[in-house]
Amino acid sequence: MSSPFRVLVTGDNLAPAAVKILKDIGAEIVLMPGAIAPERIAAEMADAPTQAVMMRGNPVMSAEVIASNPHLRVIAKHGAGIDSVDIDAATKQRVLVMVAGDANAPAVAEHTIGLILALGRDIVSLNTRTRAGAWERPTYRGREVRGRTLGLIGFGRIARHVARAATALGMTVVALGREKGRVDPALAREANDLADLLAVSDIVSLHAPLTDATRGMINAEHISAMKQGAILINTARGALVEEDALRAALESGHLAGAGLDTLAEEPPAKDRPILQAPNLIVTPHIAAQTGAAITRMGVEAARNIAAVLTQGDIDRANVVNPAAL
Q1: How far apart are the C-alpha atoms of 57 and 285, rounded to whole Å?
Q2: SS3 91
Q3: How many domains, in total, are found in the chain?
Q4: Do 37 and 140 reside in the same domain of the chain?
Q5: Which of 25, 57, 255, 285 has the most CB atoms in a 10 Å sphere around its CB?
């Protein structure tokens, strides 16, 4: 007997708990190992009626791919970023786009705090120098985070977790959301605007989605408006930052350091200029890649798909394009 639903997963594995949720509704699960171009997704959906795509990684769901499948009902992100999905095209086709709620927020928040602490105490560079024979205890002076101001650009689920952790560490938190009045005053002071946030922050952490409006938002002008000796953290999307401007600020010493989990080009070429910048910590877009978070993301994405396909209770907080409902 054929399965009533076909779910395409843009990855080579899925957490067993997520597999069970989809199997329980009778879904056929099709995994896609290897590199995934839009044409490959379209070809896979053309093989048989496909009602759902679970997006692992960041493959592109273009308007052409979405329009090519009249059976598609839901695109579920195995995470939170939606910049690789043509939302307008999905809404036009009445295809729901859903994110995995709060599933990855604790892990990304922990990584954000980890980068802040590592930069403030020069952990990576001290490790390298100590192994090379240096012993800097008599002269080294680190920087405590207690008493410093953390500015959060974006105030979604991840940023709120970061705010709680930062407050516990004795930091003052200011935040700028996408709309005025959306910052919880119990967690952070709402900045008047970006200029206000940059002027008062010792550490600036990016948690904004990548859109046409936010692409390159941290440019030379905004970096120069940051405090002398400030630190920049990006665990959101690499293209939010103009990398040449960041490199220049690190080389001049205007910024004391930067921690990037995302880059404009992923994976980067070995000779990408930003990788040569001093006082920079780079990690390979793994802030959400803990065992627990991967399971949570898979389960939440599977629940989103199951609710749509079985006409169950949809978690509207996870819906990106409610107009498609």
Answers
A1: 10
A2: helix
A3: 2
A4: no
A5: 255
Say yes or no: 131 and 262 in one domain: yes
Q: Whole domain around residue 25: which residue ranges?
A: 5-103+291-324
Rounded-to-integer distance, Cα 148 and Cα 152, Å: 13
Same domain, 246 and 303: no
Provide the phi-psi class of 24: left if phi over 0, else alpha when psi is between -120 and 50, else beta. alpha
Q: What mean pLDDT is predicted for residues 249-260?
A: 98
Question: Per DSSP, what are the bridge partners of residue 172?
Answer: 149
Residue whose C-alpha is closest to residue 300's, from 323, 322, 317, 321: 317
C-alpha span between 149 and 302 (Å, rounded): 38
Does residue 110 share a domain with residue 242?
yes
Nearest CA to 109 out of 150, 144, 55, 77 is that of 150
- Using one digit for the tens of pLDDT, what is the confidence trace for 196-248? 999 999 999 999 999 999 999 999 999 999 999 999 999 999 999 999 999 99
Strands 230-234 and 203-206 come out as parallel
Which run of H or E residues covers position 53? Answer: strand 52-55
pTM for this predicted structure: 0.92
Long-range contacts of 295-300 (CB under 8 A, 24+ apart): 295/15, 295/17, 295/18, 296/100, 296/103, 296/104, 297/78, 297/79, 297/100, 297/103, 297/104, 298/14, 298/15, 298/17, 298/18, 298/78, 299/15, 299/17, 299/18, 299/21, 299/103, 300/100, 300/101, 300/103
**What confidence tier does 2 reach under pLDDT thresholds 50, 70, 90?**
low
The label of the residue with tokens 């839901």 reads: 74
Indicate whether 47 and 175 sit together in one domain. Answer: no
Residues annotated as catalytic are 237, 266, 285
pLDDT digits (tens, 9 = 90+) for 271-324: 999 999 999 999 999 999 999 999 999 999 999 999 999 999 999 999 999 999
Are residues 23 and 80 located together in one domain of the fold? yes
